[in-house]
Amino acid sequence: MAAAVSQRTRPRTRFTFSGWRSLRLRYLNAMQRLPHRLAEAGVEQRTTARLGRMNRHVRRILFILAGVLAALLALLCISQPFDLSAQFVFVLLLWGIALVVRRVPGRLPALMLIVLSLTVSCRYLWWRYTATLNWDDPLSLTCGLLLLVAETYAWVVLVLGYFQTVWPLNRQPVEMPPDSSRWPTVDLMVPTYNEDLSVVKPTIYAALGIDWPRDKLNIFILDDGNRPEFRAFAEEVGVKYIARATHEHAKAGNINHALQHADGEFVAIFDCDHVPTRSFLQLTMGWFFKDSKLAMLQTPHHFFSPDPFERNLGRFRQTPNEGTLFYGLVQDGNDMWDATFFCGSCAILRRTALDEIGGIAVETVTEDAHTSLRLHRLGYTSAYIRIPQAAGLATESLSAHIGQRIRWARGMVQIFRLDNPLFGKGLKLAQRLCYANAMLHFLSGIPRLIFLTAPLAFLLLHAYIIFAPALAIALYVLPHMIHSSLTNSRIQGKYRHSFWSEIYETVLAWYIARPTTVALFNPHKGKFNVTAKGGLVAEEHVDWVITRPYMALVLLNLAGLCFGIWRMMYGPADEVMTVIVSLVWVLYNMTILGGAVAVAVEAKQVRQSHRVEIAMPAALSCEDGHLYPCTLRDYSDGGVGVEMRLPDRLKEGDKVGLLLRRGRQEYSFPCVVTRAFGAKVGLRMVALTTRQHIDFIQCTFARADTWALWQDGFPEDKPIDSLRDVLALGFRGYLRMADYAPPRVRGVLVGAMSLLSWLLSFIPHGVGRSATFSQKETVV
């Protein structure tokens, strides 16, 4: 009888699982088809068109009424007290809506996600302020308030970030007038201090090829190092050279001194390693004709070499780098609110507006952002075109990268103190908020350190930083984190993958905490430090000086982990769940710290010139008269890689001429074969004349379309996959640290990490998430 019952029930069980599987597949297919159906239906387009046809005053009244109604409903959702079961239903409902909405194309669904995220986050913060502080225990209250301050800071940055990026403008270029006699004169300035001449030459060579009337373009080398070889180089290539006897106010003072010797109607500024494309002025100057109040137009800072994060973690052009979010989305969002920042390079400014504010600002070490703030205060407008029109060298070492960020952080806080955008005349509300968010962003050091140590207060000191049951913590904290991750993934996914900000901010937290705090109290303290470019890393090594604060935090969290395990086994039974929550937090912190350690393992970098990938027709002419068509696959300032149509035609040591075209002209460059493997051939430039070097730079680095598509092609952000990547990097950091540790410590670390890696290998992996391009670098 039992067997018969078992046989009768088995098909029903299989049907149940089969039905669930079928329902799940139907849901996934429906969600995949939903964006296409909505796009075909044109719902957003029709709604936008109807609003556009509506009377302006009626439309404004409707928006106000909708905003008031939404605010009242949000206030009710935020402040209404729920028991845990009601909170669970509320969270589940909003989460389900978010999962459906995030797949719908268009900006309105993104706005809905922002509303959902803000509702959940505000409800969490309300709960934290009203129900989670232990007023009976001074230690718990102190630790809880510190965490609450850090969370409030993170909430403010989250809200301002949504506002800043909710509606990127995506400004397009405006055509120049056909009559070139109306075009203005432009002074193109390249400031330099201690950089090697080999870094500056490509920038000047590219500037000489900019598509602009020769009599209306003046190129200046602003040498703050007073070097004779720079003066001789300027005379050789026919550009102007300016040096000054004194060197006050660093880069800003250098430019202001040069302005006294220049009289162009516009000023274009490039860092000495930023190689401009020939289309820079053609792409940017049209907007100055269209808007007479436009004082500054900024284009992205693009880097063709990997920064320390990309190089040391092996993620170059696989994951959006640290700057992609700012130049890909934030500046475009700022442009919507007429709040584009001047970034010190790859920009052009109206000379009359610059003179009106007294030149480049010199009161802070971030003179660029301060200059744009002053222009905005006088009612001038700004613009941003998100098309890279120059490319430069990223910082070569983590220490140089951190030094650069310290200067940025100190300077932005100096502006916050000396010329606070929230006060004073001249700025619109939106501009004040955009500037304030940019400055508050650099105050993240102390809050980040609090998040990295907060669970230790409970595990080591028995202080209740969140005085609530573990289940309540989960029902309020997790929705806050999940919704913000989903929303940011939707808004920022193309420019910043989920959880990578954790690593970026952790690496910088310790180092920017002190200078920003000092700048808050003494904004005049601090000096300008020049970022080194073009350096080499002879051997792979751990930068132990940089890793000291990370290692201290790792040891603290490790102590908390060990003590937490002991408390879970031998502590009070009613604290077990809270201990588990704290342990999960500690493990996450240790993973992020492991990623920071991985960044500090400096990868070997012995390339004199960085290679850039491309696919461009070329040809090779041999000494025997043969001409072989080929494709240029990569290039640097000193050599190229080509792919032959016919393999095995050349051998190492052969002398050839590389033929490249620019427009209707063809140029030949003498080369020698350094490697030949089938159809793949590597070439090194030999004995280029100055004219040939200029032509080569203009045929490669300075092409109008060289960098246009570099920001495209990153894989779509998938939060789960990104979390898995960050976890893997954390384990990698400890394994790399073990490679350089004493033998006894190394064995323990390698064993522990191997065990954890084996356990994590059972987690299912996603497929199809790879970059649509690759970057190959070879040694010249």
UniProtKB/TrEMBL annotation:
Pathway the protein acts in: Glycan metabolism; bacterial cellulose biosynthesis
Name of the protein in its database record: Cellulose synthase catalytic subunit [UDP-forming]
Stretches assigned to the Glycosyltransferase 2-like domain: 189-358
Membrane topology according to the record: Multi-pass membrane protein
Domain PilZ: 605-701
CDD domains named among the record's database cross-references: CESA_CelA_like
Function statement: Catalytic subunit of cellulose synthase. It polymerizes uridine 5'-diphosphate glucose to cellulose.
Catalytic reaction equation(s): [(1->4)-beta-D-glucosyl](n) + UDP-alpha-D-glucose = [(1->4)-beta-D-glucosyl](n+1) + UDP + H(+)
Keyword hit for Cell membrane: yes
Enzyme class name: transferase
Cellular component terms (Gene Ontology): plasma membrane
Gene3D superfamilies: predicted glycosyltransferase like domains, Spore Coat Polysaccharide Biosynthesis Protein SpsA, Chain A
Source organism: Serratia rubidaea
Enzyme Commission number(s) of this protein: 2.4.1.12
InterPro entries assigned: Cell_synth_A, Glyco_trans_2-like, Glycosyltr_2/OpgH_subfam, Nucleotide-diphossugar_trans, PilZ_domain
GO BP terms, alphabetized: cellulose biosynthetic process; UDP-alpha-D-glucose metabolic process
Cofactor: Mg(2+)
Entry's transmembrane regions: 60-78, 84-101, 108-127, 139-163, 433-451, 457-478, 550-570, 576-601, 745-763
PANTHER family, A to Z: CELLULOSE SYNTHASE CATALYTIC SUBUNIT A [UDP-FORMING] (PTHR43867:SF2)
Pfam families membership: Glycos_transf_2, PilZ
Matching SUPFAM superfamilies: Nucleotide-diphospho-sugar transferases, PilZ domain-like
